[in-house]
Specification:
The complex is a heterodimer of chains A (425) and B (224). With 425 residues, chain A is an alpha+beta fold. Chain A has eleven helices and 14 strands. Helices cover 35% and strands 20% of the residues of chain A. In chain A, the strands form four sheets. In chain A, strands 1, 2, 3, 4, 5 and 6 form a six-stranded mixed β-sheet that branches. Chain A starts with 7 loop residues before the first helix and ends with a helix. In chain B, strands 1, 2, 3, 4, 5 and 6 form a six-stranded mixed β-sheet that branches. Chain B has a four-stranded antiparallel β-sheet with strand order 8-7-9-10, with helices on both faces. The chains are: A alpha+beta (425), B alpha+beta (224).
């Protein structure tokens, strides 16, 4: 299914809101959404929720022969998939550009930064090494897949335990988890991606864009850092022009965010470790709330109502009273009309009056019925457009409507109606 | 170093090899069709030109014979980056409902693949007469032993140090693309970016000179 296109009104609204430093969900420009990390029963399985964006990471390992040119290093394999349940726009076979981009970013962020010690994955040099496979699945797309994916990947890697191996001369023994406790991977540092979206040719900047914001953004800058303030990857995309100090500023913001997120990951890992040690229940089933069908819960957002009374008073006193409706002095010559005027469809009256000719209708009747129509439409909220193609489109500003009606009433609307009726008959 | 050839049809080619060593020779072909895009009607944009890039490496370009010249993830990523760079630089609003193709082939890869591609493609686009905002100059930079190095070769790249690729529009110092791999402390970022920017500006001088020389040659030839 193709992605539903974003309407122009929505696009303008979003861009204008961002220009006024407002976001749809009430966040500040540098705020992240709520991050929730849950672990499964197996080691190495983790789900990360970034707002509504949800990514599942699963780590697995197996013994393979090493690469020719690197006989003493283990192999890391990354795979990110956009599941069809994530968004109706994702179809099997499509989305190739986005998939490639995300996959390459994940690879560069985690492999090139050497966050995992691949030498420790070597069992027998040149013959057997561990191949660690990181599978990331996007379960729900609500913007900022990259950040969620990177958090999921690194958390799962920290959580994972590989089987213990011992070498005695020529014999290699791989112990099952029952025989010996599995061993964690040796991880040097935790790189985490932070995404910045740019709007209006780089004038406005947002951290952690949601899906709507991603649709209207000009470009994206992803910076992957670890908590030691080392930048692991920078990637700009989307064809915007950046300036050097913008990139430097983003890197400073990223360092702050990464520290926060790293703390969160550490806490989650420790919690899980504690629960497992104490023999409590762990896993995904435990992280779901019981007795509840709904999956999403709106967080309580505090609203500042300190000076709401005063603000309301200010607003009321400052607004001007509605201006006087002065009918335009334009007097239409007989037999002339203008397309676009006449917002009320007077053809409907014909149905009511059994197809009477226009000449029979008096001006007063016209005015009355049209007034009535205006009133009824004003009362309705929202304004409903009828299916009939003959009916004129109703404009959303009742002020102008009233004006138009008065103009109509004062001029030769009857002759206009004659003109309108002719094509129908 | 840089050589270009003009063809009566509006197709242009440019070969670019950066100064340090004959690292990467790139040939670019840029045709522009003002006809409405056939077949792929869904790709047609009503207000801009669609940019179609393809990057491929010749099988003989690297030390070991390359099995898959294009279609693997790295080539797809490079294609996307090229597309992104040129979408920012070319004035696509002047060609609605058309398509501009940029095909890049690496003949010899010795580091700095992306930079060579961008520089050659800039020359080709200039040659084809497609309006650009400014020259797009790209350069790679690295950080080894606490010194920023510019224009890394293959050996330096594979040593595992930091590698930054920048595509710059020199006059306004706008970055069309910033790409960095491997660890670098935040404090060194500014120095590295400065070094890369300076190198790009030097490159801009070279590209400009070549374009003007070529133009003079061509105009004298046409004049005869």
């Amino acid at each position: 299914m193709r992605e539903t296109p974003l309407s122009n009104c929505e696009r303008q609204f979003l861009v204008q809101a961002i220009a006024e430093k407002k976001r749809l969900d009430g966040r500040q420009t540098y705020d992240y959404r709520n991050i929730k990390i849950t672990f499964g029963t197996d080691y190495g399985c983790c789900i990360v929720d970034l707002g509504k964006t949800r990514v599942l990471a699963q780590i697995s390992c197996e013994l393979v022969a090493p690469k020719m040119n690197r006989p003493t290093e283990g192999i890391l394999f990354f795979n990110l998939e956009l599941s069809q349940m994530a968004s109706p726009a994702f179809e099997p076979g499509r989305q190739s550009e986005l998939v490639v981009k995300l996959n390459r970013l994940v690879e560069r962020c985690l492999r090139n930064s050497k966050c995992i010690d691949t030498e420790s994955l070597c069992v027998v040099s040149g013959e057997k090494v561990w191949q660690i496979r990181v599978d990331l699945h996007l379960l729900n797309h609500d913007g900022n897949i990259m950040d969620a994916a990177s958090i999921a990947a690194i958390t799962a890697l920290c959580h994972f335990r590989r089987p213990d191996v011992s070498i005695q001369g020529e014999d290699v023994t791989v112990y099952t988890p029952e025989e010996r406790d599995p061993v964690p991977l040796s991880i040097h540092h935790m790189p985490i991606c932070v995404s910045f979206s740019f709007f209006q040719q780089g004038t406005y900047l947002l951290v952690d864009p949601s899906e709507r914001e991603e649709r209207v953004m000009d470009g994206l800058l992803v910076i992957a850092m670890n908590k030691h303030r080392e930048i692991c990857t920078i990637q700009s995309s989307g064809g915007i022009m950046l300036l050097k100090d913008q990139v430097l500023r983003c890197s400073k913001i990223a360092s702050v965010k990464v520290t926060e997120i790293s703390e969160l990951i550490q806490k989650a890992l420790e919690n899980d470790k504690k629960v497992r040690k104490e023999g409590g229940k762990f896993g995904f089933a435990e992280s779901m709330p019981n007795q509840r069908i709904t999956a999403y819960k709106m967080e309580v957002a505090p609203v500042d109502t300190d000076d709401i009374g005063k603000k309301a008073e200010d607003l009321i006193s400052n607004t001007e009273p509605p201006s006087e409706i002065i009918p335009s002095p334009v007097v239409r010559a007989p037999g002339t009309g203008q397309i676009g005027e006449g917002l009320q469809n007077s053809w409907g009256l014909d149905e009511n009056e059994d197809g009477e000719e226009a000449e029979d209708q008096t001006m007063e009747e016209e005015l009355q019925t049209m007034d009535v129509k205006v009133k009824s439409v004003n009362k309705e909220d929202p304004i409903v457009l009828s299916d009939s193609e003959e009916e004129d489109v109703v404009v959303l500003e009742p002020k102008i409507m009233k004006k138009e009606v008065k103009v109509q009433a004062s001029s030769t609307a009857a002759s206009k109606k004659k003109k309108k009726k002719k094509p129908a008959h | 170093m840089c050589s270009r050839s003009l063809n009566p049809r509006v197709i242009s080619r440019a070969i670019f090899s950066p100064f340090l060593s004959s690292k990467a020779l790139v040939a670019t072909v840029v045709p522009i069709r003002i006809q409405p895009v056939r077949g792929a009607r869904s790709k047609c944009l009503h207000d801009r030109a669609v940019l179609n890039c393809q990057y491929s490496m010749a099988t003989f370009s690297t030390a070991e014979r390359k099995r898959r010249p294009h279609g693997d993830r790295k080539s797809s990523e490079m294609t996307l980056h090229l597309k992104q760079t040129f979408e920012a630089a070319i004035l696509t609003q002047l060609y609605p409902r058309s398509q501009i193709d940029i095909y890049v082939q690496i003949l010899q890869a010795d580091g700095g693949n992306y930079s060579s591609c961008v520089n050659a493609a800039t020359l080709a686009v200039v040659d084809a007469g497609i309006p650009l905002r400014d020259y797009v100059c790209a350069c790679s930079a690295g950080f080894l032993e606490d010194t920023p190095l510019v224009d890394l070769s293959h050996v330096e790249e594979s040593s595992g140090g930091t590698q930054l690729s920048l595509a710059l529009l020199p006059k306004a110092e706008h970055l069309a693309l910033v790409e960095m791999d491997a660890r670098l402390h935040q404090d060194h970022l500014e120095g590295l970016m400065d070094a890369a920017t300076r190198a790009c500006k030097d490159l801009h001088a070279v590209l400009d000179r070549v374009v003007r020389e070529h133009l003079q040659e061509v105009s004298t030839q046409l004049g005869e």
